[in-house]
Structure formats: C-alpha cells, structure tokens
Amino acid sequence: MSRAAAVVLLLAAAFVSTTTTVAAARHHGHHHDGFAKVFDRQEADLVEALPGQPAGLGVRQFSGYVTVNQTHGRALFYWFFEATHDVSNKPLVLWLNGGPGCSSLGYGALEELGPLLIQKGTPELRLNPDAWNKEANLLFLEQPAGVGFSYTNTTADLERFGDDLAAHDAYTFLVNWFERFPQFKGHDFYIAGESYAGHYVPHLAEKIVEENKKVHKSRHINFKGFMIGNAAIDEASDERGMVDYAWDHAVISDENFGHNSAYLIVLKAQYGQIEFSCCGWDPGIRYDAYY
C-alpha cells in the first residue's frame, strides 16, 4: 500500500469514528451550558483514534474542514494536535508544507514533525519521539484549496490561485478556526514551514499583521513570529545560499567556491534584467510560482 493511500484510509476511518462519537454525546443529552455551540463544533471534529494508532499518544486530536469562501464552496482541511502537557499555556504553531502543492498532512504531519508517523510497508502508525507537540499545540493545514483534502466547488478558482490568494484563504481559515477553538485565541501564535512555504509563511505573516491593524482588538491574532526551513525565496538568493552552505561545510573547495561566486554575480545581474513571465517573477521583489 502506498503512503498516500494509507493516509487517505486512516483519515477516512477517523471521520467514521468522529461521527459515532458526536451522535453518542448528543444522545446522552450533554452540552446544556452557554458553551454548547462551541463544544458541539469542536466535538464534531474530535478524532477518537486512527486505525493502526499505537497506544500512548496521550493527546487530543481534531480534524475537519473550515470554509474560507461560502459562495465558491471553498474549504480547507486541517489536523490539530494538542500539546502533550500544559495545553493552556503552550504556543500554537501552524505548519505549512510547500511545493506548491505539497500536503501538510502527508509530509509534515506524518513524515516529519507530527506525533504520529507512517511506516513503510504497513498501515500501522508509530509514535514520533521528536514530535513538535511536545513543545506546542500543533496545527497542520492543507492549502491552498486543491491540495490534499482541501477543495473548491468552483473550478475557476484553480486557475486563480497564487501566493496572495493562498494567504487570503489561510488568514480566513485562521479567523474561522479560532471561532471554533476560542480557547486558543490568546495563545502565542507562530507560523512554520519549509520549501515553498518560504513564500506561504511570510505572505500569511504579512496578511496577519496588516489585518490586525484594521480589525477590532477582539479579533486580533496573537502573532509572534515565523520559522522557515530550506526556504524557497527567490532564485538569486537560493543559488547564493546553496553555494555558501556547501563551502562552509567543506563540500566544495575554495577554488570552486571562487568560481561559483563569480558565476553568481553574473547570474544575479541577469536576473535583474530578465522577467520570467512563466512564473510571475518580479526582479528584486519576489516571484509567484503559480504564474
């Protein structure tokens, strides 16, 4: 069984488990306080367990859809793990994979930093000893729509996507997600990602900062910073960084470093004169791989 197929089966089974849990809770007449609506919405996303999940996870997990555009029928899928301890005081970290088009569930959650990892050749999961939710509440988001389980009912959307629209939808997701999970609204909030998230993360960070200036304080996102690994920024910076890294780690000689440095000076000058219309590259500013 492929890894992608294993992920689909695990999450599909989780939805079945979730539906049963919610039905049972409502049958027994729970939720008669003022927080009933919020509790119901969270309970609807609660995942009791995944097939092949090992014992000892010890944290609550939630998954589901958050609508970001009602008119277009556009919704983003998330998977959330509470921290292993001190949930109410730990920061909240949003993880975004890059690509563009990489799944934050299939890669980030299940192969890198999530508390559950898939295993080769078996549908069973294993605990991740280095999971980030040991230090933070951890939120994985499939974005933009069309990636992973996230979708749109408007085909034209798939031709409109770019970094700006992705940031707009991710921000809308956060606003609506915090309405569903208001207990995390005041937590220190960070965005993290890798690869093309070198675009997604700063775009979303900028969107949050700008919106915080416009909206009422009660709607502020308590944004504290971001982290990016192996970031795709722009061609000139990426090429320069690879050469510097290789030389600093003795992968290339001083002579090769000198030759490469001279080449990159010429390359940077060329980048300043050429606009790559195939990917919407704007010399000296930023490029968008969607265009």
Describe this structure in words.
GO terms for molecular function: serine-type carboxypeptidase activity. Keywords: Carboxypeptidase, Hydrolase, Protease, Signal. The structure is a single chain. Helix 6 links the parallel strand 9 and strand 10 (223-229). The model is unreliable at 12-32 and 273-285 (pLDDT under 50). With 291 residues, the chain is of the alpha/beta class. 40% of the residues lie in helices and 19% in strands. Helix 1 (3-27) packs antiparallel against helix 2 and helix 7 packs antiparallel against helix 8. The two termini are 35 Å apart. It folds into two domains: 41-233, Alpha/Beta hydrolase fold, catalytic domain (Rossmann fold); 236-271.
In short:
The chain has about 290 residues and is α/β, with parallel strands linked by helices. The protein has helices at about 5-25, 35-45, 105-110, 155-160, 165-180, 195-215, 235-250, 255-270; strands spanning about 45, 60-70, 75-80, 90-95, 115-120, 120-125, 135-140, 150, 190-195, 225-230. The protein is globular and about 70 Å long.
Task: Give the secondary structure arrangement, pairings included.
Layout: H1 3-27, H2 36-45, E1 46-47, E2 61-69, E3 74-81, E4 92-96, H3 104-112, E5 116-119, E6 122-127, E7 137-142, E8 151-152, H4 157-160, H5 163-180, E9 189-194, H6 197-214, E10 223-229, H7 235-248, H8 254-271
Parallel strand pairs: 4-7, 4-9, 9-10
Antiparallel strand pairs: 1-2, 2-3, 3-7, 3-8, 5-6
Helix pairs in contact: 1-2, 5-6, 7-8
